[in-house]
């Protein structure tokens, strides 16, 4: 359909990406707008980055926090982001996302029917308050399923899957008027629309872009959606948008080598340690799982072992990813460290020294950790387990420059009318490299910017003098 005649729209909003973008689709529908969602992945419910996440969403000042006496605020969250990124994160976008984080999680529960709960059993690195909210099982597939089921029940949202957004059309004033969509057979159609939300994730699956922007992690396994090839980024750049923070990414140092499942950093936060292939600790594991991916990649053979015990094992079973790792047989068990060294191939002396160091530090008898780690919870005790891990790239954190209302900005810093971006298609709040990533700061821009884009579009649509036709194609 052609979008040349103002006011004659097939839909008000086209959402490209059925991950976090579904939050934007639902919010737009809630506000009375018509929506079309397109996605090239028929298996999106388990194949995109939202579905592969641990479903951790920051909400600073939420009602769950207030009910449990947790003191937090957007200002405190922003301070944590600033500290973790050493002041390199975009303060405007970070401040905007911190401000909407609590309203977002409360809307997800009330407006989208997501059964959220506040994580209190352990704290992720960099968060000074318990502000992460998640679902039972702590897996993104559960989160995405709830969003999808609500989308299916909405009469104002249509789904076109599999289909890929390949371009947008704009009028003489530069405002979006159409979304060019291509099916798997190569047939293209232009959907008349007043706005497009680029929720296509980043470029983690585009090997050439990763090698160019993220050389330190380029050789690591990519553990993300296969369609995260930078489509949204390319479309935006084609229409004069700017990009920023292209060297930022979320890595992970706890991908099980045997099963290619996520072991999870809860193991470390409950007292586990990581050693390299030879059995030696090589840093402060609690600095964060993202930056530790590059540290692991720099070790001999780019692999290592997370060493834990029965207590840590049992505490982590609340994570679906960890249970899948256990069920896949990725853990090696032994009654003592000599046997564990034999079964892992680690040097017995090095492994013994690493675990003895943890025990001494956890009991307060070891003084200060040589790497600066200050938290070990409890000493490791036999029987011991170890799981071999490799570094991974989960998703990229750089993309199109957006403002606090999720609008894509051009080279002069002005919004491109009707063009929005969220998640990995937008520039993130993780600063540079991998060191600034905080748990949940991938899902927050994915869900939060999508939600904000719909809010912005609804306000624009309600402005006197605008017209719309909500009939769907």
TrEMBL record:
SUPFAM superfamilies (alphabetical): FAD/NAD(P)-binding domain, Succinate dehydrogenase/fumarate reductase flavoprotein, catalytic domain
Keyword Glycoprotein carried by entry: no
Protein name as it appears in the record: FAD-binding protein
Keywords: FAD, Flavoprotein, Oxidoreductase
Recorded coiled-coil stretches: none
Record carries keyword Protein biosynthesis: no
Gene3D superfamilies: FAD/NAD(P)-binding domain, Succinate dehydrogenase/fumarate reductase flavoprotein, catalytic domain
One Pfam family matching this protein: FAD_binding_2
Record domain FAD-dependent oxidoreductase 2 FAD-binding: where: 12-431
Superkingdom of this protein's organism: Bacteria
Cofactor: FAD
């Amino acid at each position: 359909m052609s979008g040349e005649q103002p006011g004659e729209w097939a839909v008000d909003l086209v959402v490209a990406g059925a991950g976090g973008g579904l939050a934007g689709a639902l919010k737009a529908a809630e506000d009375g707008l018509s929506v079309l969602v397109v996605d090239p992945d028929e298996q999106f419910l388990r194949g995109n980055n939202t579905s592969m996440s641990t479903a951790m969403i920051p909400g600073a000042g939420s009602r769950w926090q207030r009910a449990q006496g947790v003191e937090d605020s957007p200002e405190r969250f922003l301070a944590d982001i600033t500290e973790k990124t050493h002041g390199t994160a975009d303060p405007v976008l970070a401040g905007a996302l911190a401000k909407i984080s609590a309203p977002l999680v409360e809307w997800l529960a009330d407006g989208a029917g997501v059964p959220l709960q506040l994580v209190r059993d352990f704290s992720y690195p960099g968060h000074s308050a318990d502000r992460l909210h998640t679902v039972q099982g702590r897996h993104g597939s559960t989160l995405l399923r709830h969003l999808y089921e609500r989308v299916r029940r909405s009469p104002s949202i249509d789904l076109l899957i599999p289909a890929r957004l390949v371009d947008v059309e704009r009028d003489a004033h530069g405002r979006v008027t159409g979304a060019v969509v291509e099916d798997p057979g190569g047939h293209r159609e232009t959907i008349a629309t007043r706005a497009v939300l680029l929720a296509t994730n980043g470029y983690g699956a585009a090997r050439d872009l990763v090698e160019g922007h993220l050389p330190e992690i380029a050789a690591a396994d990519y553990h993300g959606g296969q369609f995260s090839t930078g489509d949204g980024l390319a479309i935006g750049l084609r229409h004069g948008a700017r990009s920023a923070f292209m060297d930022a990414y979320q890595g992970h140092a706890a991908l099980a080598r045997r099963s290619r499942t996520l072991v999870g950093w809860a193991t470390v936060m409950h007292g586990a340690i990581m050693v390299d292939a030879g059995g030696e600790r090589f840093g402060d594991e609690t600095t964060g799982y993202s930056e530790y991916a590059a540290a692991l990649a720099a070790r001999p053979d780019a692999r290592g072992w997370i060493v834990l015990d029965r207590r840590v094992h049992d505490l982590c079973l609340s994570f679906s990813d960890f249970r899948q790792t256990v069920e896949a047989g990725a853990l090696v068990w032994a009654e003592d460290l000599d046997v564990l060294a034999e079964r892992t191939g680690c040097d017995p002396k090095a492994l013994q020294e690493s675990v003895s160091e943890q025990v001494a530090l956890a009991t307060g008898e070891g003084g200060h950790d040589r790497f600066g780690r200050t938290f070990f919870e409890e000493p490791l005790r036999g029987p011991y387990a170890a799981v071999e891990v490799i570094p991974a790239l989960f998703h990229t954190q750089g993309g199109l420059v957006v403002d606090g209302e999720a609008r894509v900005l051009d080279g002069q810093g002005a919004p491109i009318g009707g063009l929005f971006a969220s998640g990995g298609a937008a520039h993130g709040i993780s600063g540079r490299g991998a060191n600034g990533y905080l748990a949940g700061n991938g899902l927050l821009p994915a869900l939060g910017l999508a939600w904000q884009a719909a809010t912005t579009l609804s306000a624009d649509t309600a402005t006197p003098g605008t017209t719309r036709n909500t009939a769907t194609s």
